[in-house]
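Thread: Newbie trying to understand structure tokens

Hi all, I'm a second-year student working on a class project, and my supervisor (Dr. K.) asked me to get a predicted structure for one chain before our next meeting. I've only ever worked with sequences, so writing a 3D structure as a token string is new to me. If someone could post the tokens and maybe explain what I'm looking at, I'd be very grateful. Here's the chain:
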Amino acid sequence: MTSSKTEQYRHRPVRVDDVGSILSVVNTHSEAHRGNGRWGEDEVRSWFGPDGKPAREDMEIWFESGGEARAYAQLCDSEWPPTWDVWLDVTVHPHSSGNVGLWSDVLGWAEQKTRELIPARDPNTGHRCGVRILETDVSGLQAHEKRGYERVRTETLMHVELTAESVVEAEWPDGIHVRALDLKRDLEPYALAYGEAFRDHWGHKELSRDELVRKKQGEFRSWGDEYVPELWFLAVEGDEIAGGVGNFLNYGGDPSRSYMYNVFVRRAWRNRGIATALLRHSFQAVYQRGASSAELHVDSKNLTWALQLYRGVGMAPMWHQHMYEKVLPPVAS
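---
Reply by user tm_fold:
Sure, no problem. This is what the structure looks like when written as tokens:
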């Protein structure tokens, strides 16, 4: 990494009319490290939240003196792992990724805003910040490590091409049937089933019934029109939710791509083929709606053998990203 003064950059809170500039930063970064631009305009607009505010205190953008956007940062709620107080979504344009001063400025802003805006779960310990960095983003890895972030885990993106030959009918175990998630009647049992299933995963944090329901309710609201009720499925035995999965269409603004979210099976129903059936049922559903691929993230050391499960339905790893943590100690009063 090369050192450079930050006077050549200016930054300010993000505005709605910055969507194009944000896309330039995040998609150029994605093309450099993933081989494709992952984000679309509608998806970036959804980052502003359902209120559509013209400016956000928790989103910042950096411009070079010539007017080109060179970095973007946002403080995000951490659905996973729940031990993080905040997920710092930080992207520096590849043309400026070697600039140590810019990285320091961006991460310094993110940490300062975390202290100002995000309540710490444990005020005595401080804020636990998390980041995700692609393994090929060497400058990003070095910048975070230099600032005291430590690697704690690795995630893998799994991908499968969907064709008339590869999409097959799901086979459900005896006594199990599938139906769509109905938030009016299912929100609470769904949230509790999800919470139980993820007890076996790294980073799990036990939450009360009310907290689980409130977090799930907030998630669904935040997705707006991206949430399609007909594409969220429950595997049910009698009145019990055994497992579930959600699917998003038009992933990254690309109608050919879909994304699978929150694949889970509760302990008492595992090793019966339910997860495989949920995956195959999802493949069929998104394929019928025009998607020709499906993707999901998985913890590379998942204790429920998820990597083997996904390989078993034809999915293959595309890339890896490392998860880093840093605890910001409490500021002395």
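A couple of things are worth pointing out once you decode it. Residues 167-313 form a domain with the Aminopeptidase fold (CATH 3.40.630.30). The chain has a mean pLDDT of 90. Feel free to ask follow-ups in this thread.
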